[in-house]
Amino acid sequence: MPGAIVVGYTATDTGADAVALGARLARSLGAALHLVIVLPNEGTRSPIVPPERAYEDHIKAQGKKWLADALATLPQDLTRSGHVRFAESFAEGLIAAGEEFGARLIVVGAAGGGLFGRHRLGSVASELLHSSTIPVALAPAGSSQSDDHVLPRVTVAVGKRPGAEVLLDEAASLAADSGTDLRLVSLVPFDVPPGLDTGAIRVVGDAHADDVLTEATALLPEGRTAVVEEAQGDSVEDAVAGLSWLPGEVVLVGSSRLAQPRRLFLGSTAAKMLHELPVPMIVVPRTRAEAGDR
Questions:
Q1: Rounded CA gap, 201 and 94, in Å?
Q2: Could you tell me which residues come within 8 angstroms of residue 292 by beta carbon, excluding any fewer than 6 positions away?
Q3: How far apart are CA 112 and CA 119, in angstroms?
Q4: φ, ψ for residue 9 (rounded to 5)?
Q5: How confident is the model at residue 127 (pLDDT cuts 50, 70, 90)?
Q6: Dihedral angle computed from the Cα positions of residues 65, 89, 106 and 161, in that order, rounded to the nearest 10 degrees
Q7: pLDDT for 172-187, tens place per residue?
Q8: How buried is residue 202: exposed, middle or buried, by Cβ count under 10 Å (0-12/13-18/19+)?
């Protein structure tokens, strides 16, 4: 059974973008959708300040109303629910909710002020990318204005760094469970040691692409295909900008090799990609927690 989709919700355009992506993922995977609003708990208040129960009840009731309004906009065929949680931080509350609901993905939107169709990391997304044990899906600005109902394709950026196998497994699983094909974008030219000449990079890239394609094909169910596309360009940004994208597809990237095991950290390659991507990015931890292996 596919894990649930947990959406970090706020009653803003950013929250609407996250809900739209969460709904697309939930529908594609046949998963339950949980919208979560995180409010500051009492531990964030100075001990010399007395509790204001009436105020807390008020903001909790307001949170429930926002959730009810958001849930009412979703298609009736989706299994969905809304939850108010209290935590030290929004990211901490989302991770706890993700663990509670057995989430496959945590979804958040771009920070306010970002360009339409592009990503801009806010404080919540940044904190998640430094601490989550669960893959995090980032919705670009304007996602709520898209009418894409299911994933048309899954793309994964593959290289040779630690965690590549986990990333490929996650991408193949997402493609298989959503009934889509898989595109492998080779980033080997940006992953090889400095000093190799162009010919050596080409040989390394071609050999790696063939190996990964064989592995990906074996992971996919019958009737689903995998293809390799080499990202062309003098830089990661150029390469990503030159790729074609289907409306509504997602791209998976691995977390940094500097990240602690089972934790996310957006590496330099992924950060550069993020600036050029017009589609949602899913960042996958290098290794999975044993209890979360799927």
A1: 41
A2: 133, 134
A3: 10
A4: -105, 140
A5: confident
A6: 170
A7: 999 999 999 999 987 6
A8: middle
Instruction: Give backbone dihedrals phi and psi of 216, rounded to 5 degrees, phi first.
Output: -65, -40
Take residue 273 and report the two structure tokens written for it.
Answer: 């990609």
- From residue 197, alpha-carbon distances to 192, 193, 200, 280 in Å are 10, 10, 5, 34
| Residue 98 predicted with pLDDT over 90 | yes
Query: CB neighbours of 263 closer than 8 A, spacing ≥ 6?
Result: 130, 131, 132, 133, 255, 285, 286
Token couple for 196: 């190799």
pLDDT in tens, 245-282: 999 899 998 876 544 554 555 566 666 777 778 899 99
Burial class (CB in 10 A: 0-12, 13-18, 19+), 230: middle
